[in-house]
Design brief:
With about 240 residues, the protein is an alpha+beta fold. The chain has helices spanning about 5-10, 35-40, 45, 110-125, 175-180, 210-220; strands at about 10-15, 20, 60-70, 75-80, 90-95, 95-100, 130-135, 140, 145-155, 170-175, 185-190, 195-200, 205. The strands form three sheets. Strands 3, 4, 5, 6, 7, 8, 9 and 10 form an eight-stranded mixed sheet that branches. Strand 11 (about 185-190) and strand 12 form a beta hairpin.
């Protein structure tokens, strides 16, 4: 059964604390329909050139790509990682992290459990208010060796969020999709390694790297992207 079929048939997993969770597209707001189509059709190479190693190497992990609806319409939940962390320190990201043994099968429901568990641990999110509706193909982050499964959710019943552990999270915030699609907020970053990638100057921060790549591809394939200046470059140390 494909991921799209699983979503349509409401395959059930378990919440980190043992309660049920459904992977389902039923009852989503109409504006999320283009994102659902992305889940059903996108191929791994359309999201990134960095794909999981064929030999199975890499640490399995998951992130929660959570769509909500705020005062300015659709929005995404992001966080800024603590500057003391070993991997991706100080970088804006989706909530998420490595799978734990209790999360279960990495090729089954494990990423669903991990995405919700990590989001709760990092942002205080109540997972009972989240409806998971899709899973994107696994991708690879070479610099940290993580194999990441992006898990998509709808914030059906919003709950208060904020920093739970300052050792892990510097801040938690939401970004309106309207700001992400605004050409004035878009740019290209050039990593010291020479790798170029999309970036977003939003909420007083620079969203780049893996997180920006996922957002960029979702906006593109959902048909939400508006033309922007790809020659506009922003350094990673843009504040200095």
């Amino acid at each position: 059964m494909t991921r799209a079929s699983e979503a349509a048939h409401g395959i059930r997993a378990a919440r980190p604390q043992g309660g049920p969770v459904a992977l389902s597209t039923e009852g989503l707001p109409p504006w999320l329909e283009p994102v659902v189509r992305v889940v059903e059709t996108v191929q791994p190479v359309q999201l990134s050139r960095f794909l999981p190693p064929e030999d199975g190497a890499g640490r399995q992990s998951a992130v929660l790509v959570l769509f909500g609806e705020g005062e300015r319409g659709p929005e995404l939940l992001l966080m800024e990682r603590a500057s003391s962390l070993r991997s991706h320190a100080g970088q804006p990201s989706f909530p998420g992290g490595a799978l734990d043994p209790e999360d279960g099968d990495p090729h089954g429901e494990g990423p669903l459990r991990a995405a919700l568990r990590e989001a709760e641990e990092e942002t205080g999110l109540d997972p009972d208010g989240v409806q998971l509706f899709g899973v994107l193909p696994r991708l690879y982050i070479p610099v940290s060796g993580f194999v990441v499964t992006p898990v998509l959710g709808w914030w059906r019943e919003p709950s208060p969020v904020g920093v739970v552990d300052p050792a892990e999270t510097a801040r938690v915030f939401t970004v309106p999709v309207a700001d992400l699609t605004n050409p004035a907020n878009r740019a290209t970053t050039v990593h010291p390694s020479g790798h170029r990638g999309p970036a977003f100057l939003v909420e007083s921060t620079l969203v780049w790297g893996f997180t920006a790549g996922i957002i960029d591809r979702l906006l593109h394939y959902a048909g939400w992207e508006t033309p922007w200046d790809r020659d506009k470059q922003v350094p990673l140390d843009w504040r200095s």
